[in-house]
Amino acid sequence: MKVSILTVYYNRENQVQESIQSLLDQTYSDVEIIAVDDGSKDGTLKRLQTFHDPRLQVITHSNRGFTNSIIEAVKRSKGDYIAIHGSGDISYPRRIEEQVRVLDSNPAIGIVGCAVDNVDTLTGASEVFHKLNEQEPPLQQLLRENVYTHGEVMFRREVYEQAGGYRTLFTFTQDFDLWLRMALITKFGTVHETLYRRYTLPDGVSASVDKMMIQQYLAELGRQNIEQRIQEGADWIDRFGPHSIFFMRRSKRLAGRVFQLGKVALWRNNDWKKAQQMIRISLGQQWRPDRFAVLCLVRLIDRVEPLQSSATRFLRWMREQKQRQKQKQRALSS
User: Fold this and answer.
1) Structural domain boundaries, residue 133
2) DSSP code of 173?
3) Do 238 and 181 share a structural domain?
4) 309: pLDDT confidence band, cut at 50, 70 and 90?
5) Cβ proximity of 104 and 145 under 8 Å
6) Amino acid 129: pLDDT
7) For residue 241, what are the CA distances in angstroms to 95, 225, 235, 238?
8) Residue 190's beta-bridge partner residues?
9) Which Pfam families does this chain map to (predicted)?
10) Which one of 104, 165, 192, 332 is most buried, by most CB atoms within 10 A?
11) What span, in angstroms and rounded, lies between the C-alpha atoms of 247 and 95?
């Protein structure tokens, strides 16, 4: 078996049909597809069981979370290469073929992504992005930001095992933690063609400021652990498991990212209290007078109704202007 495609579903019955069909329609044929139903409460399992194809294996168990489910799928898989596919996302027909071509032709590359069409189901906006810069060491990039979306990647099983696989501590950013450790032992590659469509759903991580904050904390834990591993040969998680979180240092990186989440809370939801919470957390990581001034301003606006109403209308107007600008840009590019 050459390629194992792994996908985990939880309460995604309306996204099953098109998503799984995109895997069955791949031009590359030497694949097995393992779809895990992680204890869904809706009709996800029934939808998965409507497919009758010998390449598809459906696994179901009580709800264990994504990380435990993907670990089980890897253990059950047989392929030399492992491709991840996000639940509800679309892999274009030539995705597997093109990524196999990269890995087959360059043994030094252990993981490969592709260009991704990112679709926001809340706004309908679509944007193609391609994050990996192949001219820069991957670890150097990862210390700034993630270079892949999880569902776009294919990696060698031997590299996955050598890196230590997914770690259950990372309920979010389990992919990012894995890429950090892979970056120490292999080269990263990409297919510049758009071969994957990713959907941002209303109940996904990127739709919740609280979940995004947890995601940022875990990402920073991963970064600090890889720095520790480089310095001492082992990281805190290797030594202390889940207690490793108590060894985290205050971080300028994390402060900036959480402060940005305060802006997200205002921009998306006009949530003044959530914005204050994010800014306070940011200041706990790194004190900055300018951010404290922003906190004071947001707190004042939240407490004075006329100011809040005016500020909310202004934010709404700004969103509308930005949306019109994006529509014009899409019209010009098409």
Assistant:
1) 3-205
2) -
3) no
4) confident
5) no
6) 81
7) 36, 11, 10, 6
8) 113
9) Glycos_transf_2
10) 165
11) 40
